[in-house]
Structure formats: structure tokens, C-alpha cells
Arrestin-like N-terminal domain-containing protein
Amino acid sequence: MSTSGVTEYTKTIQRTWTRKRLHISIDLAGEQGNIINTYTTSDRIDGTAAIAADEDVDFDVTFEGIYRVYNERTGPPHTDRRVGASKTFLKLRHPLSTNAYPTSRRFQKGEKFIFPFSFVVPDHMDAPFCMFNSDETHIQLPPTLKGGKLTGADGSLSDDFTPTVCEVVYAIQVRVVQTTTNRTLKTQSQHVRLIPPTPST
């Protein structure tokens, strides 16, 4: 193996080991087992995130809405024939007070920190996301669509009558970045269900 090959192999092992030593957990207020929390517009999403790392890291916590579309391509049956694309249409960043959190949102090696977060679900997408001139209903947040599956009140999966070629997902996301390289070390997501109110007719 060449010197460059050994170096890259070593870096891969280091990245894998770093991810194993990095722990992220997200807890939402009102969680009940495996049941996904449900919200509507103007609701508050409260919770806490815990991060523990063996090196100096930065972090960020966001509430995001993402849509994904898939298509089938021809190919051998034993391969993954689905191709897809995704776009983030909503991204809210939790504001961090310099008095309550480590300087510049940075954790020191060996430190475990638990911090609260809170988001208010908006009633529409950000204006720059859509360039069309249309009424307000055009920029309202879409409901959660999870590939034809819906988690019921008892945690069981049932058909939500949506096609499997499209998804709309909402999640709290915590991203941890290596301080020296600004490289993402690990990302942890906690999905939530969003059901916007139906406009009155």
C-alpha cells in the first residue's frame, strides 16, 4: 500500500473512532415511548439535547423541513434502483445565549453538556424559497408525508395513502462539527409530525 493510501486509511479509522466517542441525544417534551410527537403551526417544540465528546467541538441545533422525491431506474434486481433528490424548505436555528452556553457554542474535551431548546412552528415557508407570485396558501407548510406510512397513537404503522415516491419530513437536528477543520463529525435527528390547520371554507 502506498504512503498516501496508508494516510487515508489512518484518517478513515480516526474519523470512525471519533464518531464512536461522540454521543448525541435529543429528548422532546411530552414524548411517550416510540410515538412521534405531533405539532401544528404556532405550537412550541421544547426539548433538550445532550452532547459528550472527547475533543473540542462546535455544535448547532435546528428545526428543519425537508421534502424528498424518488424515482425508479432500470438495473439489476439486487441493486438499489431508487434515485432521489431532496431540498430543505424550512430551517430554523435555535438561538444560543452566550451567558447560558459555552463560549462560541464550543465544548471542551471530556465535557458532557445538556442544554434546552425551543422552536415555534411557523405558519409558512421562508419567502426566498418560492419565487412564484401566488396566494398565501401556496407558501403554507405542507403536512408530514412519510412514504405511505403513518405512526398511530399506539405507535403502530398504518397507511397514510401517500405515494412512496415522495416524502415531507420535519425534524430537530443537532450537528456537531470538529473545531479545527469545521468538518461535520456527527448528526442526530429526531423526527416530529406536523399537521397544519385546514383553511376554513
